[in-house]
Amino acid sequence: MKVGLSTGYWSAGPPSGVIDDVAAAERIGFDSIWTSEAYGSDALTPLAWWGASTTRVRLGTAIMQMSARTPTASAMAALTMDHLSGGRFILGLGASGPQVVEGWYGQPFSRPLARTREYFDVVRQVIAREEPVALDGEFYRLPFRGGTGLGKSLKSTVHPLRRDIPIMLAAEGPRNVSLAAEIADGWLPLWFSPKSDGFYRSALAEGFARPSSRHQGLETFEVISLLPVIIADDVEACADLLRPMLALYIGAMGARESNFHFDVFARLGYEAPCTKIRDLYLSGAKGEAIRAVPTALVEDVALIGPRDKVAGEVARWKETVITTALVSGPASQYRMILELLS
Question: pTM, whole model, 2 decimals?
Answer without folding.
Answer: 0.96
